[in-house]
């Protein structure tokens, strides 16, 4: 909405001119009636110019979103939820997903982190939305971000004035159990410095309910095994972040941040009952994670970054099961210690005629120590002690060149080299990246990008250990896992900064994921991560935003893709399968008043495949309400997620000699009530400058 546009100002200028000429033409003895008559002839009615705020801007091969503006009336309480509400981005079982990309990396201020995805997501869930300046969505991240493939970059606000603000939250959630969470954050800034402090405590309890029917072929006989599992998890989680920023000059700044996630006590109980076995697993653990990151940007284009994470986990587990008349039980003591550090250096030079030259390097070193010891073993369940130490090193370097035109095409090209070692494995790799942006007008922008990436399995997946979930199900490690390589081509068109259409093609060689297999050697259901030949996808993604009525805004995202998966070495049953998949998401925001809004969001995904799995369709309906009061200092938000308890598909396998189905769709529905209070908000007042243009010599 805008009142008094340039055009309107021009109308008023013309009117004033006409009035002046008319007054000059009047005889000196004219009375006021003539002037009044002329004035009536040129009187303008009320003029209001209406405009739509851009939803997305496309710059340098990126989709840029103003997160605070786009989520102002949405019932989101933190950065993670705000990201999941953006067009094409969704939350899939606690992980952010980007439509048209098999995986996406989330970074902050252009720097990767040594924290795991789960740890970084915990940080985002405790960070307020008003800390973010903008969000950059990339299907092909430039090399200076030191991540490859699709990425989401969260750009935080920098200190620019004297201000202080804070917020406290109380959160109640019911998802079978009652959960309580408290959060507090505070920010103090000056033109030179800023200090951030965030803390949250979460009394977390969860219940999961699984049912399984397995028609297991063993020694030419089919065993019908049915069982029901109840999994309870209870723990107290603490999250802390402290950050300091110093602005050396307008173009140079330094910042340092400390993050920690502490779970001093985590208690898990799994009870399984069925016609084949009865078992109970009790697990007690504790986890500590500390992370320190620092970055420096100079006025001449040099950027330096360092990041260090220390992770420590200890578990004590007791499993007892009864299979027929045989009793099995054992104790497990295990843990994991990880130390990861990284360093990045980047330099950019602005050359003549809008050319830019960039180069940089990064180094990451990780030391992982895993152990698992069995004691008091009774029964026939297979057990083996493990104690492994692994050192992993990754060295990257790149060279990039880009050219920006005032209008028309702009492009960037880069090449990255990588040397990777883990144990006795050494590998050189080369990664090209390119993007072309054609900017005809702000209403018509086109981006074409090419990227490549390599993904490495987690340390746990590469251990040759066996972990028993109960008397029938077990997890096996795979010490021979190979990293997978991904090549991706995307083309995006943006219309009027509100509608986007993306076509994509992605090919992942040596793709790896965990799958389930009925062992032919004994009655055991095996969960194991294995490499496939490839996982190939191509399709279209469309995003649009509509103002249906003054009180209703609707965002729609639609995707259609073709999946093709192949594995020649999948146990003893190779597969080569493909399928079309469709997904539609619609988010509706109803504005009842300036302070009260409602949301009704829905998502539908057609049936899909994963290896030998057939997954049913899934549908999720969410509703929420947001009320702001006390001069917008207080906010009360109510959310009801997954109303119909249908947000996770059912799994069925009927392929070769494998035949089983699993249902994990219980207890997905949740109700969340959040109260937040914002305080402070002091900002330095603007003072009128003394007019000095005519003073001095």
Summed up:
The chain has five helices and 37 strands. The strands form four sheets. The protein has a 22-stranded antiparallel beta barrel. A five-stranded mixed beta sheet has the order 1-2-6-7-5.
Kindly describe this structure.
The chain has 697 residues and is mainly β. It starts with 5 loop residues before the first helix and ends in a 14-residue tail after the last strand. A hairpin with a 4-residue loop joins β13 (277-297) and β14 (302-323). The chain is 7% helix and 63% strand. It contains 5 helices and 37 strands.
N/C terminus separation = 45 Å
- Tell me, briefly, the overall form: globular
Instruction: Please count the helical segments.
Output: 5
Number of strands: 37
The overall pLDDT average reads 86
The low-confidence runs, each spanning 5 or more residues with pLDDT under 50, are 1-39, 684-697
Strand content: over 45%
Q: Share of helix among residues?
A: under 10%
- Largest sheet features: 22 strands, antiparallel, barrel
Subunit arrangement of the protein: single chain
Helix-and-strand structural type: mainly beta
Rg from alpha-carbon coordinates: 30 Å
Features:
697 residues; mainly beta; 22-stranded antiparallel beta barrel; 5-stranded mixed β-sheet; globular; disordered N terminus
Provide the fold topology.
Layout: H1 6-25, H2 32-41, E1 57-59, E2 62-65, H3 67-70, H4 79-84, E3 89-92, E4 95-98, E5 105-108, H5 117-125, E6 132-138, E7 151-156, E8 163-175, E9 177-189, E10 193-218, E11 221-247, E12 253-274, E13 277-297, E14 302-323, E15 326-350, E16 355-378, E17 386-403, E18 408-422, E19 425-441, E20 444-455, E21 466-468, E22 473-476, E23 484-495, E24 499-509, E25 512-518, E26 525-531, E27 534-549, E28 552-567, E29 575-591, E30 596-605, E31 608-610, E32 613-615, E33 618-629, E34 634-641, E35 651-655, E36 658-663, E37 670-683
Parallel strand pairs: 5-7, 22-26
Antiparallel strand pairs: 1-2, 2-6, 3-4, 6-7, 8-9, 8-37, 9-10, 10-11, 10-36, 11-12, 12-13, 13-14, 14-15, 15-16, 16-17, 17-18, 18-19, 19-20, 20-23, 21-22, 23-24, 24-27, 25-26, 27-28, 28-29, 29-30, 30-33, 31-32, 32-35, 33-34, 34-37, 35-36
């Amino acid at each position: 909405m805008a009142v008094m546009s340039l055009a309107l100002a021009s109308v008023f200028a013309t009117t004033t001119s006409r009035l002046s000429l008319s007054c000059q033409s009047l005889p000196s003895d004219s009375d006021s009636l003539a002037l009044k008559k002329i004035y009536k002839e040129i009187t303008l009615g009320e003029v209001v110019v209406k405009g739509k705020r851009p939803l997305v801007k496309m710059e340098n091969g990126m989709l840029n979103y103003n997160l605070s503006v786009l989520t102002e009336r949405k019932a989101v309480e933190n950065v993670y939820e705000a990201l999941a509400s953006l067009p094409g981005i969704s939350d899939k079982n606690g992980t952010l997903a980007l439509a048209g990309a098999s995986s996406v990396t989330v970074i902050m201020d252009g720097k990767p982190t040594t924290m795991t995805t789960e740890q970084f997501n915990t940080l985002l869930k405790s960070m307020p939305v008003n800390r973010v300046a903008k969000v950059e969505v990339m299907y092909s991240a430039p090399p200076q971000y030191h991540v490859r493939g699709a990425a989401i970059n969260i750009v935080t606000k920098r200190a620019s004035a004297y201000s202080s603000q804070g917020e406290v939250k109380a959160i109640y959630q019911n998802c079978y159990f009652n959960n309580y969470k408290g959060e507090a954050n505070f920010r103090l800034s000056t033109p030179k410095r800023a200090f951030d402090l965030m803390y949250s405590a979460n009394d977390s309890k969860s219940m999961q309910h699984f049912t399984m029917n397995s028609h297991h072929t063993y020694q030419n006989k089919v065993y019908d095994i049915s069982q029901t599992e109840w999994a309870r998890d209870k723990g107290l989680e603490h999250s802390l972040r402290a950050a300091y920023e110093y602005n050396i000059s307008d173009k140079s700044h330094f910042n340092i941040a400390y993050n920690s996630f502490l779970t001093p006590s985590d208690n898990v109980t799994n009870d399984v009952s069925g016609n084949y076995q009865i078992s109970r697993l009790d697990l007690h653990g504790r986890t500590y994670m500390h992370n320190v990151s620092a970055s420096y940007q100079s006025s001449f284009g040099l950027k330096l970054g360092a990041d260090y994470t220390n992770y420590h986990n200890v578990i004590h587990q007791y499993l007892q099961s009864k299979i027929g008349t045989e009793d099995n039980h054992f104790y497990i003591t295990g843990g994991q210690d990880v130390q990861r550090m990284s360093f990045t250096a980047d330099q950019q030079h602005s050359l003549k005629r809008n050319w830019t030259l960039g180069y940089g390097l990064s180094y990451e070193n990780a030391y992982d120590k895993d152990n698992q010891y069995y004691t008091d073993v009774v029964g026939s369940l297979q057990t083996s002690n493990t104690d492994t130490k692994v050192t992993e090193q990754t060295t990257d370097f790149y060279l990039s060149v880009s050219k920006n035109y005032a209008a028309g095409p702009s492009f960037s090209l880069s090449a990255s080299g990588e040397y990777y070692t883990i144990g006795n494995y050494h590998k050189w790799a080369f990664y090209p990246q390119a993007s072309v942006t054609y900017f005809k007008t702000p209403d018509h922008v086109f981006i074409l990008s090419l990227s490549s990436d390599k993904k490495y399995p987690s340390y746990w997946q590469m251990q040759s250990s066996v972990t028993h979930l109960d008397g029938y199900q077990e997890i096996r490690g795979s010490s021979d896992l190979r990293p997978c390589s991904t090549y991706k081509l995307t083309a995006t068109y943006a219309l009027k900064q509100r509608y986007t259409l993306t076509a994509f093609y992605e090919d992942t060689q040596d793709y790896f994921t965990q799958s389930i297999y009925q062992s032919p050697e004994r009655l055991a259901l095996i969960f194991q991560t294995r490499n496939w030949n490839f996982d190939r996808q191509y399709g279209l993604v469309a995003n649009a935003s509509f103002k249906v009525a003054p009180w209703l805004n609707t965002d729609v995202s639609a995707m259609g893709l073709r999946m093709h998966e192949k594995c020649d070495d999948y146990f003893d049953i190779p597969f080569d399968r493909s399928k079309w998949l469709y997904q539609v998401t619609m988010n509706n925001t109803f504005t009842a008043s300036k302070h009260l809004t409602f949301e009704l969001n829905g998502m539908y995904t057609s049936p899909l495949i994963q290896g030998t799995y057939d997954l049913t369709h899934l549908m999720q309906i969410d509703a929420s309400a947001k009320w702001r009061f006390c001069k917008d200092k207080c906010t009360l938000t109510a959310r009801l997620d997954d109303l119909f308890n249908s947000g996770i598909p059912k799994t069925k396998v009927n392929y070769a000699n494998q035949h089983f189905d699993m249902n994990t769709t219980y207890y997905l529905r949740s109700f969340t009530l959040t109260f937040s209070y914002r305080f402070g908000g002091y900002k330095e007042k603007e003072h009128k400058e003394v007019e000095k243009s005519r003073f001095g010599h």
